[in-house]
Specification:
Blueprint lengths: L5 E12 L2 E12 L3 E5 L6 H8 L7 E6 L2 E2 L7 H7 E4 L11 H12 L4 H14 L15 H13 L5 E5 L7 H16 L3 E5 L3 H7 L2 E6 L2 E6 L1 H6 L4 H24 L1
Parallel strand pairs: 3-8, 3-9, 6-7, 7-8
Antiparallel strand pairs: 1-2, 1-4, 4-5, 9-10
Length: 260
Amino acid sequence: MKEISELLAISHLNKSYDGNVVLIDLSLVVHKGEVVVLIGPSGCGKSTLLRCMNGLEPIQSGEIRLDGVPITDGKTRWSLIRQKIGMVFQSYDLFYHLTVLENLLLGPLHVQGRKRQEVTAAAEKLLERVGLLDKRNAYPRQLSGGQKQRVAIIRALMMEPELMLFDEVTAALDPEMVREVLDVILELARGGMTMVIVTHEMQFARAIADRIVFIDGGEIVESGAPDGFFTSPKTERAQRFLNIFKFEEIKQEEKKEVLL
């Protein structure tokens, strides 16, 4: 049974770029142990919302609280908050002159000041967990895209965050590499990790989410359990969005049949 205590609370958040409104009076609560999946059309504000949660984008008004403490009041030390809120992007952002293990040790050693022996053991345990222990001394250029993304996920986990944010982490991957990354995230969910995930992988969203949040035009249009959302969405806008994905899936299946 997952906990229901509040971890992250967003209240009446407004965000704009040069007068272009991106997020409008948006409120959202994420509970400990919950997996919230954000879906919606490109440009609707999903990735911007994640970046606001992690302090990578300033907000114009509203409030974000972590464990009940405001983190958007201008007094926040984001270097400390980002140890609690890990984020993984589309791009891997690994240091290419460092080995996999050296990439993983940077944050814990130099930001958190932890002992090398401790963090090395933790890194190797995580690498083994995702099937990459044999790559600990490899350089990023020697890895596939899926392997690099798994390393990027481990790097965020090395800081022992309370909350993980995933921003379209499979978008830059070849189709055959997508599954190995999604499997890592599924395992984190089974382990009780609190996560907010932006994805266009609808089957994955349905499988992993405790709650689906559908965003369009910078606003939350609909929110609910995945089974209800995908089988009988309440809003016409969500219905149209899902119909587009169903049409694309049918076309993909037809293409496979032609190739076979």
